[in-house]
Amino acid sequence: xxxxxxxxxxxxxxxxxxxxxxxxxxxxxxxxxxxxxxxxxxxxxxxxxxxxxxxxxxxxxxxxxxxxxxxxxxxxxxxxxxxxxxxxxxxxxxxxxxxxxxxxxxxxxxxxxxxxxxxxxxxxxxxxxxxxxxxxxxxxxxxxxxxxxxxxxxxxxxxxxxxxxxxxxxxxxxxxxxxxxxxxxxxxxxxxxxxxxxxxxxxxxxxxxxxxxxxxxxxxxxxxxxxxxxxxxxxxxxxxxxxxxxxxxxxxxxxxxxxxxxxxxxxxxxxxxxxxxxxxxxxxxxxxxxxxxxxxxxxxxxxxxxxxxxxxxxxxxxxxxxxxxxxxxxxxxxxxxxxxxxxxxxxxxxxxxxxxxxxxxxxxxxxxx
Length: 369
What we know:
Layout: E1 5-13, H1 15-27, E2 31-38, H2 42-60, E3 66-70, H3 75-81, E4 91-95, H4 109-112, H5 117-129, E5 132-135, H6 138-152, H7 164-169, E6 171-173, H8 181-184, E7 199-202, H9 212-224, E8 230-233, H10 243-252, E9 256-259, H11 265-274, E10 277-279, H12 289-296, E11 300-304, H13 309-313, E12 319-320, H14 323-335, H15 354-366
Parallel strand pairs: 1-2, 1-3, 3-4, 4-5, 5-6, 7-8, 7-10, 8-9, 10-11, 11-12
Helix pairs in contact: 2-3, 3-5, 9-14
């Protein structure tokens, strides 16, 4: 197969989106050119990125074999704007997340003003306008498909549910590619922890959908059980410091040995290898890259039995159904001393490394042209 010329549209070029786009461009056999916008103002990106990217594409005069868009833009508008200049170029959309299933923060003013449904509708029309849809996990694909009928039922008439079959037909899973081999360079030689007491890590965004309030409830309950441990609170923060993090910082004091994200990937990798336990409380995770990274680095995961997590770890005894269960698991893991031994999943997580997935991406894209 001859290499394709692919234009990758990334309206939110930062964090995991940036790493995925760069990783795909670096590992693909195809020629991938990234058009991007800064990772801010995500709501405006969903409205305006389509116009910006269409103008850039038209002005460039370039032609491509495939256009690969991101779900954080209005692909229907984009497709309409480039119809004359690129009439035969297929457009595929990669769904990192979707707004139908995303739990909105109660502090978001759009929820109070009733405007939140519009972003989900953009995801719906994006799905209609795309030639193919790729989701980063089976869970995500199924969640989107399941949410659409109920979503369309909210409208008074002409709900167009007949369109759902075509969306289902052109949807498939293309798991998130990751630079997991990067972490191998920082792997310690010892297979047992050198920490004097267990180090629990939080390496998620400091936002509502990751449920940090639930995390701190579990941590507080563990302290009441007499457990002794340290905390490393990593992860990106896009807004002001959340109040519950401020409160936890005051209450936990010296137990917190890292407070805030570590932008240097080398140091982030070192934190993951140093940590012993990765406790997750998310109410939404369409793939769960942070927990895959932590578990790849031998952290013992303690995970809610929902979302995409069972897709990664099968039925290993690392899942809880309630916060009370999570506390019991944490107590057992620490008191038994099992936290000192490296965690090894039954199914190797390097199946998500680009070395494995890039050929799948390449073949998949080749079938669209």
